[in-house]
Amino acid sequence: MPLYLSVNTIAEMICFLTALFCLAGDKSLVWKSFIGYLFLVCLTETSGIYLRVHHMRNYLVYAIFLVFECWMVSLFFYHIYKRYNHQRKLLYGWMGIFLLVYLAEMYSIHFKSFPSLTATFMSVVFVVASLYFYLLIIKDEKFRQLSTYPPFWIANGILLFYFGSTACNVFYDYLVKHENGISPTLSIRYIIFNLLNVLLYCCWSYAFICRYYQRKLSS
Amino acid sequence: MLVLRFYMQILSKEIVFLITFTTGIFLIAPIFIIVYVSYYNKRKARHFEEKEALRKNFELELLRSQFEVQEHTMETIAANLHDNIGQLLSLTSMTLSSVKAEGAQEGKITTAGELVHRAIQELRQLSKMMSGKELIRKNLGHAIAVELDWLQKGTDYEVLFTDHTSRSIPEHADKELILFRLFQEIISNIIRHAEATRITIVLDQSATVLSLLVKDNGKGFIPEEKIAANEGMGLFNISKRAKMMDGTFNIHSVTGVGTDILVSIPYI
Fold first, then answer.
1. Which residues numbered 31-90 in B keep a CB inside 8 Å of some CB on A?
2. Does the global pTM surpass 0.80?
3. Where do the domains of chain B lie, and which CATH numbers do they carry?
4. Which one of A142, B64, B176, B202 is most buried, counting C-beta atoms within 10 A?
5. What residues does each domain of chain A span?
């Protein structure tokens, strides 16, 4: 059982429970879908650990999860861009490109490894999307209290996670080949992703709490 | 073989250091971006506050100018009424009194003379009421009493006026004049809309505040609804003028029971 309780899984579980408590009564379907997505995150992580414990390769679980991850984050960005008159076709266009790159890479690696190039490509797009969101905030005529503005904290988490993971993504192949040689129990990739996950889920949990209080105040 | 392994270990350590260092940089950069966006947003908030303060200031200045122009116009009309029409009526009265008539005509001329005399009285009172400065010369309580006299002449309102003021501050004559105009506006609103039978006015003074309370037993209304329906311009103006004097404006109205309006201004 302790195998299933790592820094990663605990952060994910706390974030999932926060989402469940704060967003269950939310009117917005996009915000509510964070509950389902975080449940999927916990499920993927548990399945990944289970397969690893039983000496089976778990890359396929994470490879499939990548599509859901891309969809959820893209949907969220579309949701926050919508108020600035961005059109739905942008979301579908981006998802189309992503699926094309994803399938092409999966095909090229014969579905035998994690599509790291697609993940890197996705990370770059999400970093740009976060920075674009900041630009929209700066350009916006309306003032918002950013310290308690939920979309801002979701975007902060996304930027920290995807920008921070760039180095790991770039050196992904190398790290996979050599990480056992660096340290058999605690690889640098594992430490960095733990740190990034904690940052991501802290930001998201805080965003959910802010969203909860805003909903309570407005009702 | 051993050398190659040693070389590989060094390379691995360097790469690990490089990745850790790059990740650190890649984490610091977004943190700075977030801090910058937050800082910029705070400056934007300050800018909005300054803009709002300027707008409010401009509105107050505009209101003050409007008030001054209105007051000046009324002074001019009052002076014209008093000096021109008043003079003409006085001459008419003198002419009528010099006419020597007999029999039935004498009675008619006497009646005409009395009517002209009444017209002169009314005109003097009207020009006095229009000239705010003239009214306030004694004090606000006196001005309100004169206005209420005028009101009671032409209407059936039961009017109760209580004046608790103890001293008048000559430097605040302008404030008293604005408060008097607000009082006139409130009374005018009651006559036009309230369908009241009783009006109670209380003028109160504490060490630092001069307050005017006007109560009626009319049909009442919901202030929020009036303002939302853009029908509450009178209320809006009263509120703005109270703010112009750094004062407060409170309204409490119950449908079918009546309305209480309290205007308080600093008076030191």
1. 31, 33-34, 37-38, 40-41, 44-45, 48
2. no
3. 137-268 (3.30.565.10)
4. B176
5. 2-218
